[in-house]
Amino acid sequence: MSGGFENSIIEIKEVKYNKVEIRLTDFNDDWSQMFQTEVEFLQTIFCEEIIKCEHFGSTSVRGMKSKPVIDMMCIVKNIEKVDVFNNQMESFGYDIAGEWGITGRRLFRKGGDSRTHHIHFYQFDNPEIERHLIFRDYLRSHPEEVDKYSRFKEDLANRYKTTREYSPAKKKFVSEMEQKALCWYSESQTERGK
């Protein structure tokens, strides 16, 4: 990796009581390659079960401040079949988190204490897929929103040291921005239909 994480003063690390310390970093061009490398590896495990994979979340948006953890989505034919691979995934060092609060999702975390990836599996017809991708595409199309969101995250990271406080504090802001994204998407679909 070129200039990647070793030069960054910002990191994620586990702290006492299983809380993750918040550290944000500037956008890193290596994140796209990390996503692609992971896709290729996962395809050797899940084979034809994976329809496609998407890079989403802050590491997929140029210019966005982010925790250096790649959020990726594997869209599969049948979500129940993903569970069959749990032992194999665990043998490769992934944490198996199951649905982790979102019905119909399967979440795997890679990297242990130095987490590098969150891998979200969804069945092809799960509405969470569209929500995540619309939000990503909205941010990619609105650099002013990327700046606003990055500043907000920096402010929270300065006030809160762990995800236990940071994540809930971010929720309302993200929800409001997601609503803007859904309106943007709806309007763009209406424009295309004219």
Description:
It is a single chain. The protein has 194 residues and is of the alpha+beta class. The chain has a single domain, classed as 2-Layer Sandwich (Beta Polymerase, domain 2). 46% of the residues lie in helices and 19% in strands. The chain has helices spanning 30-46, 79-82, 86-91, 127-141, 143-159, 163-193, and strands at 13-15, 19-21, 50-56, 70-76, 95-98, 105-110, 117-123. A 5-stranded mixed beta sheet has the order 3-4-7-6-5, with helices on both faces. Strands 1-2 form a two-stranded antiparallel ribbon. Strand 5 and strand 6 (105-110) form a beta hairpin. Helix 4 packs across helix 6 (163-193) and helix 5 (143-159) packs antiparallel against helix 6. The radius of gyration is 17 Å and the shape is globular.
Short description:
The chain has helices spanning 30-46, 79-82, 86-91, 127-141, 143-159, 163-193; strands at residues 13-15, 19-21, 50-56, 70-76, 95-98, 105-110, 117-123. The chain has 194 residues and is α+β, with helices and mostly antiparallel strands. It has a single domain (10-193), classed as Beta Polymerase, domain 2.
Distance between the termini: 46 Å
Largest sheet geometry: 5 strands, mixed
CATH topology: Beta Polymerase, domain 2
Number of domains: 1
Mean pLDDT: 89
Number of strands: 7
Query: Quick one: overall form?
Result: globular
CATH class: Alpha Beta
Cross-sheet strand order for the largest sheet: 3-4-7-6-5
Number of helices: 6
Classify the secondary structure makeup into a structural class: alpha+beta
Order of helices and strands: EEHEEHHEEEHHH
By CATH's scheme, which homologous superfamily applies?
Beta Polymerase, domain 2
In what range is the share of β-strand residues? Answer: 15-25%
* Spans of at least 5 consecutive residues with low confidence: 1-18
CATH architecture: 2-Layer Sandwich
- CA radius of gyration is 17 Å
Query: Helical content, roughly?
Result: 40-55%
